[in-house]
Design goal:
By secondary structure, the chain is an all-alpha fold. It is 82% helix and 0% strand. Helix 2 runs antiparallel to helix 3 and helix 3 packs antiparallel against helix 4. The chain is elongated and about 100 Å long. This is DUF4890 domain-containing protein. It comes from Adhaeribacter soli. Keywords: Signal.
Length: 166
């Protein structure tokens, strides 16, 4: 009789322990779902999903783009200030376009292309012929790398590892 009672008590404790584990597992899954939902909502509300960082303002994007162009193209101070104005105008127009269309990215393609074409025309007026040719070569190289990465079906980090090996 004692053995039977002891077996029942042990069985009841085992069932309780097992059910507690599944509850913790369910809670963990639910928490992960909520975090994913928050990340998605954050992306819509002006954040992207890379580490849930805030997107940069048009001014910050223009500053960064100008800095890169100064380094890679060897711009003068006058050219740098004019390029910064162009980059800022483009970044503000792009942000307004994204705000206008929201998640409907297909609708803004033509307008986005118009903004980029205008920006390229303005760049031609500011840069020397040699600088603009160098800029175009850099753009083509960037496009080729992106195409190769897309065709490889790999993310940026994996592609870099493979690209550096060869």
């Amino acid at each position: 009789m004692k053995k039977l009672a002891l077996a029942l008590v042990f069985g009841a404790l085992s069932v309780g322990a097992v059910s507690a584990q599944t509850t913790e597992k369910k809670a963990k899954v639910k928490t992960e779902r909520n975090e994913t939902k928050i990340k998605r909502e954050g992306a819509v509300a002006g954040k992207h999903n890379r580490g849930n960082k805030e997107m940069k303002s048009p001014e910050e994007r223009a500053d960064r783009q100008t800095k890169v162009m100064v380094e890679k193209l060897g711009l003068t101070n006058d050219q740098a200030s004019r390029i910064k104005e162009l980059n800022l105008r483009k970044a503000q127009q792009m942000q307004a376009l994204k705000a206008k269309y929201g998640e409907q990215r297909k609708g803004m393609g033509a307008e986005m292309q118009d903004i980029k074409n205008t920006w390229h025309q303005d760049l031609k007026n500011v840069l020397s012929a040699e600088q603009y040719a160098k800029f175009q070569a850099q753009q083509e190289e960037r496009k080729a790398k992106m195409k190769a990465r897309r065709e490889a079906g790999k993310g940026k980090k994996e592609f870099r590892k493979d690209y550096q090996k060869s």
